[in-house]
Design a protein that fits this description.
The chain is an alpha/beta fold and 467 residues long. The protein is built from twelve helices and twelve strands.
């Protein structure tokens, strides 16, 4: 009888403990990670309950840690998205302003240059014109940087050997930076082809080098590095990096580095830690805009042992760099090639059209004019001896400048065609079926126009020979 009673009590105790454990497990499965079994016995069931409670506690801690990490990452992504939206909004405003200012500067600079050429014998006049011309060029540089930041600068990307371009740029910098700044270049000796605009990449590198120079007034080492990267995941860039193959470019100095505020606002236009009236605060903003327009990524960071580092990721390509055209040193070559030819000038701003017409006539061209695409199309169809065209991209009428250029090329394949623009909208213009024509950015002077037309004529001649 006593044995039976003891067996009953033992069974009851075991059953009660198991029921407690089962009830706790049910609470945990329903999401209550604070539930405890309450069993503290030293037998096998007590050990099981202790292990179970410990497992639930670890699970709770892991979930709490994960929740904290998810919350932190979500806040970072929201901050990055808000920053990207703000930068895009500012970029749209800057791009629109740059377009309007470039047309105004085309009139101002063009007429100042024409006045200097026409009245160069007038004593004392050049003393007034030279500072005005210099200020106009400075203004044009600022609007160009605004266009770069707003991702609306006219890029002409090709497959570039970044290693070669870096070497050439660093050689240029050696002669222009102070002697107390030591330039160090490190690459992995492999081909580094990227699909970018080489002139704008060079300009971006020069801007980064000048920023580094200003951060090291007493001198120091300026390090450049390039390498190939296959990115699957990357942190710290301006936005999440799309997995793929990239060419990485790093520019690192031993200067003062970035403050916390500067790290957050580094890409903002007109933000600058430098003093002085010659600083526009657009250097790093221009680099940012160029990188984003090139479908790349940028990271700004401080080095652990002092100094700052700017890292660029640019999309890799698989083709070598095409040969570069030699610059035109004297417009007489353009005059010899283009003199006497009939060109159609299409520009909807009457003042800008007047300036460009005068420049074309100085190059020896005969000029027909059209204020919009519809009238230009009529002239293309009625002028049998038309040799070429200079047209703005943004036109009133049924066609834009690229489409108008394609019409002329289809009618007269040997025509010399040059596009001009003070603003560049990729949407609606980068149509894959349209032929790419040379593009000259406003405002420009006589030499730049002659250079662009000379290159356009050479390109057309090469195309004709290859047919």
């Amino acid at each position: 009888m006593g044995v039976t009673v003891l067996a009953y009590i033992f069974a009851r105790r075991v059953t009660h403990s198991l029921e407690q454990l089962a009830s706790t497990a049910l609470k945990v499965s329903q999401g209550d990670l604070t539930a405890k079994s309450g069993i503290h016995d030293n037998d096998e069931i007590g050990l099981l309950a202790k292990s179970f409670d410990g497992m639930v506690e670890r699970l709770k801690n892991n979930i709490d840690t994960l929740d904290t990490q998810v919350k932190q990452r979500t806040e970072e992504l929201l901050e990055t998205n808000a920053r990207a939206q703000r930068m895009n909004a500012v970029g749209q405003l800057a791009g629109g302003l740059a377009h309007d200012f470039n047309n105004l500067l085309s009139v101002i600079l063009g007429n100042l240059l024409l006045a200097r050429d026409r009245y160069q014998q007038t004593a004392g006049l050049d003393d007034f014109l030279t500072p005005a011309i210099r200020a106009s060029r400075r203004s044009a540089d600022i609007t160009q940087r605004l266009l770069a930041f707003s991702r609306r600068q006219p890029l002409q990307p090709v497959d570039v050997n970044v290693g070669q371009l870096m070497s050439e740029t660093i050689a240029l910098l050696r002669s222009s930076l102070p002697a107390q700044i030591a330039l160090v270049y490190q690459n992995d000796s492999s081909p580094l082809p990227a699909h970018v605009d080489p002139s704008h990449l060079e300009s971006a590198l020069v801007n980064l080098a000048l920023n580094a120079r200003d951060a090291m007034p007493g001198g120091g080492a300026l390090h450049f590095h390039t390498c190939q990267q296959h990115i699957t995941a990357a942190d710290g860039y301006d936005e999440p990096v799309t997995p793929g193959h990239y060419v990485e470019i790093g520019v690192c100095d031993r200067g003062t580095g970035f403050s916390e505020e500067a790290l957050k606002l580094a890409f903002e236009p007109f933000f600058s830690t430098k003093s002085g009236t010659t600083n526009s605060g657009l250097g790093l903003s221009m680099v940012y805009g160029f990188v984003k327009q090139s479908n790349g990524y940028i990271r700004v960071s401080n080095q652990p042992d002092g100094g700052a580092c700017i890292t660029l990721l640019l999309p890799a390509s698989h083709n070598p760099s095409p040969p570069q055209q030699h610059p035109l040193r004297d417009i007489s070559h353009a005059q010899a090639i283009l003199g006497g030819k009939l060109f159609l000038l299409v520009e909807d701003n009457a003042d800008v059209r007047k300036v460009i017409r005068t420049q074309l006539m100085q190059l020896g061209l005969r000029v027909a004019e059209a204020p919009d695409a519809d009238e230009a199309l009529q002239l293309i169809n009625t002028l049998p001896n038309l040799d070429g065209m200079v047209t703005d991209i943004m036109l009133s009428g049924s066609l834009d400048g690229r489409q108008l250029a394609a019409r002329l090329h289809a009618t007269k394949p040997q025509s010399v065609i040059l596009l001009i623009s003070g603003h560049y909208r990729e949407a609606g213009l980068a149509e894959p079926h349209l032929i790419r024509f040379p593009l000259l950015h406003k405002p420009f002077d006589l030499h730049s126009l002659g250079q662009a037309l000379w290159q356009a004529a050479q390109k057309e001649e090469q195309n004709h020979e290859n047919q």
